[in-house]
Specification:
The complex is a heterodimer. Chain A is mainly alpha-helical. In chain A, 68% of the residues lie in helices and 4% in strands. Chain A has 10 helices and 2 strands. In chain A, a hairpin with a 2-residue loop joins β1 and β2. In chain A, α4 crosses α5, α5 packs across α9 and α8 packs across α10. Chain A starts with 8 loop residues before the first strand and ends in a 5-residue tail after the last helix. The N terminus of chain A is likely disordered. By secondary structure, chain B is an all-alpha fold. Chain B is rod-shaped, with a radius of gyration of 34 Å. The N and C termini of chain B lie far apart (117 Å). Classes of the chains: A mainly alpha, B mainly alpha. Chains A and B meet through α3, α4, α6, α7 and α8 of A and α1 and α2 of B.
Chain lengths: 208, 183
């Protein structure tokens, strides 16, 4: 049931306008025919949508394309979709789907041995110093390839968990699963990443 | 790996994942998104409105044809053969009805005696081509364009029109039978 019906709605010159309350609830995005609702959603959630897209696509240009595509889909289908309560989750779901579709079209890039070795050197250096410095390109690429190699059920929650605006409950909404399931999958995903990093470190020997 | 190293790896992984995902869009993202939405909205609206415009225009043309056909039959002009259902017949019908109205009674196929129609005769030049060659009216152009773009729909409309004309002709014949019977 559309919650906007419970909020006062003003009719101005034949066009429906909504109160700030309705705007804040996010429900108006799906029920109002006013273009301002979509514009408000862009201002409020474009960054979130971008970061969701980037978490999948790992490329600024592609992430921006996916962001635009997300809002265009919202524009096209908003009249057909009623009863949406939360614009944030709704947009996140669309952004996630758009990003995955685009990612499927791109070939995976494998990491060479030299790059892996360089990444392990960076890892050892940072672990030894105990300081968290900026990830080098090789380390970032290695981490990305390890995440990509995870099973989909573990990879998806892990990617969404790194989008700082998202809590496990919201991740569960996007992935249409339970919060408990998200938490357990996050734990398992991190375990696997650590095991793989340790294995790589072992395989590349101790530093001199 | 010893527990302190495990904790360190845990912490490192936390930081690495956070760093890895901190991505900020280029300045002006919202403006670019809104501009794209506006462009798509305009394009989508234009694309969606053309079929409606043509459909409305063709519907108006069809109703005008039907209206003219009814008034044509009710003026006691003899019934003509039902035109073949085709795109050309629709166009021919449009041209025929839109042509200057002839007040000269057409050749009658019926052998029954009828009271002479009180009409004036205006001699018109005999034309070699039928329908007469003259530029199409705005309505005819729209109808032609519609028929070219949506032949299936135009054929459907022509079929419905032909059916309607058949019914009119039948009703006309019955009315004439009744009137000649009563005479």
């Amino acid at each position: 049931m559309n919650k906007v019906a419970a909020n006062p709605v003003f009719v101005c010159e034949g066009r429906r306008s909504v109160t700030e309350e309705a705007l804040a609830s996010g429900a108006v995005l799906m029920s109002s025919t006013n273009e301002d609702a979509l514009e408000t959603a862009v201002h409020e959630h474009a960054r979130l949508v971008y970061r969701i897209a980037y978490s999948v696509l790992r490329n600024h240009h592609d992430a921006e394309d996916a962001t635009q595509e997300t809002f265009i889909r919202v524009m096209r289908y908003r009249r057909k979709l009623q009863g949406v309560d939360h614009a944030k989750t709704y947009l996140a779901r669309i952004a996630w789907r758009v990003a995955l579709e685009r990612r499927q079209a791109k070939p995976e890039v494998s990491l060479g041995e030299a790059a892996i070795a360089e990444a392990i050197v960076q890892l050892r250096s940072q672990l030894a110093s105990g300081e968290q410095t900026t990830l080098g390109n090789e380390m970032a690429a290695l981490l990305e390839s390890l995440i990509s190699a995870l099973p989909k059920t573990l990879r998806d929650p892990l990617r969404l968990s790194t989008v700082e605006e998202f809590e496990p409950r919201e991740i569960a909404d996007v992935l249409r699963t339970s919060e408990a399931s998200v938490r357990s999958r996050l734990f398992r995903a991190r375990q696997i990443l650590k095991e793989k990093l340790q294995a790589l470190e072992g395989n590349h020997g101790t530093p001199r | 790996m010893a527990p302190p190293d495990r904790d360190r790896l845990d912490q490192w992984l936390d930081g690495a994942l956070r760093q890895n995902e901190i991505a900020e869009p280029r300045p002006g993202l919202e403006g670019r998104v809104l501009a794209r939405i506006a462009a798509e909205s305009k394009r989508h609206g234009t694309q969606r409105s053309w079929p409606w415009i043509l459909a409305t225009a063709s519907a108006i043309a069809v109703f005008a044809l039907i209206g003219l056909s009814v008034s044509h039959y009710s003026a006691k002009t003899p019934s003509t053969a039902v035109p073949q259902v085709s795109r050309n017949s629709v166009m021919a019908r449009v041209a025929e009805i839109s042509a200057p109205v002839s007040l000269k009674p057409a050749v009658r196929r019926s052998h029954r005696k009828r009271a002479p129609a009180l009409t004036r005769t205006i001699d018109e030049p005999k034309l070699e081509h039928f329908p007469s060659r003259r530029p199409l009216s705005e309505q005819e152009r729209v109808l032609a364009s519609y028929a070219a773009r949506f032949p299936a729909e135009a054929a459907l409309i022509a079929r419905e029109q032909a059916k309607f004309e058949q019914e009119i002709a039948k009703a006309q014949e019955e009315a004439e039978k009744d009137s000649s019977g009563s005479n």
